[in-house]
Amino acid sequence: MRNGNIQQAESQLAWIKSSYSSEEGGECVEVAAHSATVHVRDSKDSSLAGLSVEMDAWVAFVSFAAEQTR
Questions:
Q1: Do 50 and 39 meet the contact criterion of CB atoms below 8 Å apart?
Q2: Mind listing the pLDDT tens digit for each residue in 12-63?
Q3: Alpha-carbon span 59 to 32, nearest angstrom
Q4: Residues near 28 by Cβ (< 8 Å), separated by ≥ 6?
Q5: Could you give the CA distance from residue 29 to residue 22 in angstroms, rounded to a whole number?
């Protein structure tokens, strides 16, 4: 897929901002799930390249992160 097509596809996703993000800056991310892929991007500058991972990898990451905060 060409870069322009990727940007167009990403613009059609329903992005959700992390509950840890604030208007004061810091570590701000947005995620969007589509089919079997989860997309992650910087919420402060959505024009930067994002990260796309398979759903299974995202679930494993979130599970691991949740375990680390207990």
A1: yes
A2: 889 888 776 666 666 688 999 988 899 999 888 888 888 999 999 999 999 9
A3: 13
A4: 17, 18, 21, 22, 42, 43, 44
A5: 10
